[in-house]
């Protein structure tokens, strides 16, 4: 069995649940002997990381081995086969980087009217119009194709498949241009692509460029099933499914309702909905997310399953930092500082806590679009002296802050899963999580509160600060909690799901 | 002749209200839910079961005999909200076929922390029994059958003649729970729960996955018959809420109980005795040495349901630590509140042993998690500390 997986950068290249989940699941599948053709977009260096996202890029943790596929056949233009530094840990996985600049957790806020129109048209075509005929599709996929009408706009799928056909007619011996391994992004918006074509670097056009390149690659790869992680890869996944006729699994790690509350971006919602409806099966990271998929996207509940995220269990020989002795207790918020994560509730609760105890510091680690607002709020509440904003933390600094923390709080307004509390638990830090998180479905030895219940949140924070036996009992049970959540188990569930789909389709 | 000794534990705690660290009220208990639960349990269990027991006693003309340990906290609740329950217990005691067993008024673990408080609560309970039922208990059972040699010695010193505990395998070894024993160096009689037969009724009766389901009175009477030649007593100790609450009426538990006395006494081989009657009738078959604390809880039959994690240890220690300061305050209301906080249920709610499995611990807990139970309890203690400047 081989999976064409459209995923995201692994940590530490990217921090956040999406990359961690892609890594964990792929590792798990690899362990189980499932072949994975892992396709990811080109990482973009955020121009102003401290206000944009917590996505972090280090020096490229990979080397470009060649421009050909593993079996020696030339790769499609715009694709690189890469070997991650972690490669030693993978036996059945090939990695390909496509020359489309996307980053996880990006927001389409800067999308233009033109983008929206283009998107709308493309999406419409993608879903409602039959794909172009290809050998692959004729053999395996739904028939009933027609040639593209010259007067209709060229859609992603059409463009992609047309490109494939054109290529098939040209000399196969022609080698694609080698791709420079170190691409610079002048201004962060205009990028020189490997094919020599300039293209706009805005989000949605990149989403569709990614789709087009993915189809090219897919037609040169052998696989049984397509698996796509979150909306930015859905158009690519749909296009690949169309072009190849292979079954599609979409994996919903978060929805537009989680990210934007009720102010959903219609274009993003449409892409998510399209993915959910085009999929043979939908995987959700929690029942919370499954409800959203079924009730707000009209997902077929019979096709929608839950596979929980997990956490890497700490190695015994992992070096643990000695906590720094200090006379202040530390309550930690670590995550993107966005509406979804509820940082303002954390600050409101902090104010209530400080009414009772003074020797406490509230640390907000991360970056995001609400950071300025949060700094102002802390000042307004008169608790500035007790609040520290660290900005985005990486590597050792994350380890250090965890080793200092007395409590980790995740007050998320809407959290499809929430891997961060598991990371905190790995560092032996007790956690307080909002009941509005998917991870609260699987964790029992943690404290829970409603994100809006400031007093309850403060009550629980105070209890941890004042009663060491609470902290002790919580952390004593942590190993049992973490053992329940292994990536290998999650991957096994995926494997069973794939098997089911292939059996049904056979 | 095998004598069946039924002993029922009848208890309700005063559950705490949600008490945040920001609260300052001196009212710590949730009257609303306590009354609601009492009314529900009375409707499903106490009233129909008391009537059933009364019917059995009358039908068998006094040959059906049973024993109860009724906690002070339950009787307070009955007096306040459901006096008809109290009256129905009085009618039972008035038949002369019902024995009242002594215990700590507040169903507490005070023996472990404060012997003075322990003796005081037993005294309070005996006084309450005399007040309501006109009898002073002669037999004793400690909270949830918690027991060791020291408990027995202490209880003998207080003048009790019999003490009950769990017939745990790890203390009995090859010996049978169906005899009466002495604790080492004591004259007080020790009676041990036959947990297999007790739990067949209390836990397994309605379980359709149990190979012996459905349990008929004939089958059960046959098991009791087998004790003949291997012992004198069949000690069936259980929560009274078994009837109608743990085993719902739909399981047929009431019909079972109604026909059981007849089935057991049929053939004239067996009879029913109260705890003290059995203890007086049968000689001690030897000594049972129980140096470590046992109880009737969970598979472990130890204290870990109440004292298994740091939170429980801390909460218990803190509540007993207040003893002197509470007495010095000279505030009888506060003293009574403090004692109601000693009820073992509050610590049972903090148990993390089986939290994952959503088992009985979770079923009985008014809290979403053991951590919430601890935080709530500690917030209340904090308020009390402020009141007495401790």
Give your account of this protein's structure:
The complex is a heterodimer of chains A (506) and B (390). Chain A has 18 helices and 17 strands. Chain A is an alpha/beta fold. Chain A has two domains: 2-310 and 488-505, Glycogen Phosphorylase B (Rossmann fold, 3-Layer(aba) Sandwich); 329-483, Rossmann fold. Chain A has a nine-stranded mixed beta sheet with strand order 3-4-5-2-1-8-9-10-11, sandwiched between helices. The longest helix of chain A is centred in the C-terminal third of the chain and has 19 residues, at 487-505. Chain B has 390 residues and is an alpha/beta fold. Chain B has two domains: 2-287, 7-stranded beta/alpha barrel, CATH 3.20.110.20; 310-388. Chain B has 17 helices and ten strands. The longest helix of chain B is centred in the N-terminal third of the chain and has 29 residues, at 31-59. The radius of gyration of chain B is 21 Å and the shape is globular. Chain A binds chain B through residues 352, 356, 444-448, 455-456, 458-460, 462-463, 466-470, 472-474, 476-477, 480, and chain B through 20-22, 309-311, 313-315, 352, 355-356, 368-372, 374-375, 378-379.
């Amino acid at each position: 069995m081989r999976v064409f997986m459209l995923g995201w950068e692994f940590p530490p290249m990217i921090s956040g649940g999406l990359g961690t989940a892609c890594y964990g699941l792929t590792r798990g599948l690899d362990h189980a002997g499932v072949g994975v053709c892992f396709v990811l977009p080109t990482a973009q260096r955020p121009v102003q990381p401290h206000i944009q996202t917590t996505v972090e890029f280090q020096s490229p943790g990979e080397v470009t081995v060649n421009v050909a596929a593993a079996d020696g056949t030339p790769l499609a233009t715009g694709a690189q086969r890469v070997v991650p530094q972690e490669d030693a840990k993978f036996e059945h996985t090939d990695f390909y980087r496509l020359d489309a600049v996307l980053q996880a957790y990006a927001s389409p806020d800067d999308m233009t009217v033109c983008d929206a129109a283009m998107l709308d048209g493309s999406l419409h075509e993608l879903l409602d119009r039959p794909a172009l005929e290809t050998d692959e599709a004729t053999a395996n996929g739904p028939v009933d194709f027609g040639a593209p009408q010259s007067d209709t706009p060229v859609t992603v799928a059409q463009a992609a498949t047309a490109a494939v056909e054109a290529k098939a007619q040209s000399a196969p011996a022609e080698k694609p241009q080698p791709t420079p391994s170190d691409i610079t992004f002048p201004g962060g918006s205009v990028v020189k692509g490997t094919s020599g074509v300039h293209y706009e670097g805005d989000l949605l056009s990149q989403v569709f460029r990614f789709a087009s390149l993915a189809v090219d690659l897919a037609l040169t790869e052998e696989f049984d099933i397509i698996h796509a992680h979150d909306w930015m890869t859905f158009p690519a996944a749909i296009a690949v499914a169309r072009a190849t006729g292979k079954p599609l699994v979409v994996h919903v790690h978060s929805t537009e309702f989680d990210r934007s509350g009720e102010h959903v971006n219609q274009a993003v919602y449409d892409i998510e909905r399209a993915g959910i409806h085009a999929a043979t099966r939908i995987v959700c990271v929690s029942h919370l997310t499954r409800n959203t998929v079924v009730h707000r996207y009209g997902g077929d509940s019979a096709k929608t399953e839950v596979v929980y995220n997990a956490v890497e269990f700490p190695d015994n020989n992992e070096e643990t930092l000695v906590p720094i002795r200090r006379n202040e207790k530390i309550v930690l918020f670590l995550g993107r500082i966005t509406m979804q994560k509820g940082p303002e509730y954390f600050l409101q609760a902090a104010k209530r806590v400080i009414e009772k105890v003074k020797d406490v510091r509230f640390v907000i680690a991360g970056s995001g679009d609400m950071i300025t607002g949060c700094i102002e709020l802390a000042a307004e509440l008169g608790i500035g002296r007790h609040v520290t904003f660290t900005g985005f933390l990486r590597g050792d600094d994350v380890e250090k802050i965890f080793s200092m923390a007395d409590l980790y709080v995740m007050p998320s307004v809407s959290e499809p899963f929430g891997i961060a509390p598991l990371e905190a638990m790995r560092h032996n830090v007790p956690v307080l999580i909002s009941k509005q998180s998917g991870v609260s479905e699987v964790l029992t030895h943690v404290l829970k509160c409603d994100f809006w219940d400031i007093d309850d949140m403060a009550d629980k924070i105070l209890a941890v600060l004042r009663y060491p036996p609470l902290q002790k009992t919580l952390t004593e049970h942590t190993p049992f909690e973490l053992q329940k959540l292994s990536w290998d188990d999650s991957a096994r569930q995926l494997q069973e799901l794939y098997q089911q789909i292939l059996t049904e389709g056979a | 002749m095998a004598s069946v000794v039924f002993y029922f534990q009848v208890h309700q705690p005063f559950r705490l209200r949600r008490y945040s660290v920001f609260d300052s009220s001196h009212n710590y208990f949730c009257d609303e839910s306590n009354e609601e639960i009492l009314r529900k349990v009375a409707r499903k269990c106490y009233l129909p079961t008391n009537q059933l027991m009364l019917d059995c006693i009358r039908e068998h003309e006094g040959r059906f005999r049973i024993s109860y340990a009724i906690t002070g906290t339950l009787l307070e609740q009955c007096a306040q909200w459901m006096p008809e329950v109290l009256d129905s217990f009085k009618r039972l005691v008035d038949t002369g076929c019902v024995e009242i067993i002594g215990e700590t008024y507040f169903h507490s673990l005070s023996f472990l922390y404060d012997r003075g408080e322990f003796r005081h609560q037993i005294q309070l309970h005996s006084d309450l029994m005399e007040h309501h039922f006109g009898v002073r208990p002669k037999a004793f059972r400690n909270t949830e059958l918690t027991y060791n040699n020291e408990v027995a010695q202490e209880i003998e010193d207080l003048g009790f003649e019999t003490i009950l505990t769990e017939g745990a395998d790890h203390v009995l070894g090859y010996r049978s729970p169906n005899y009466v024993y002495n604790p080492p160096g004591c004259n007080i009689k020790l009676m041990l729960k036959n947990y297999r037969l007790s739990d067949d009724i209390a836990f397994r009766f309605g379980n359709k996955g149990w190979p012996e389901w459905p349990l008929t009175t004939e089958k059960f009477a046959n098991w009791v018959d087998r004790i003949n030649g291997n012992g004198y007593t069949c000690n069936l100790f259980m929560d009274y809420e078994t009837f109608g609450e743990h085993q719902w009426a739909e399981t047929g538990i009431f019909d079972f109980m109604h026909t059981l006395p007849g089935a057991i006494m049929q053939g004239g081989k067996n009879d029913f005795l109260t705890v003290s009657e059995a203890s007086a009738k049968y000689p001690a078959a030897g000594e049972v040495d129980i140096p470590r604390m046992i109880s009737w809880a969970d598979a472990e039959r130890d204290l870990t349901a109440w004292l298994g994690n740091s939170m429980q240890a801390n909460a218990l220690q803190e509540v007993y630590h207040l003893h002197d300061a509470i007495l010095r305050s000279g505030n009888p209301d506060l003293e009574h509140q403090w004692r109601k906080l000693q009820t073992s249920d509050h610590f049972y709610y903090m148990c993390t042993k089986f939290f994952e499995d959503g088992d009985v611990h979770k079923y009985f807990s008014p809290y979403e998690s053991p951590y919430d139970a601890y935080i709530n309890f500690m917030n209340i203690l904090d308020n009390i500390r402020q009141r007495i400047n401790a």
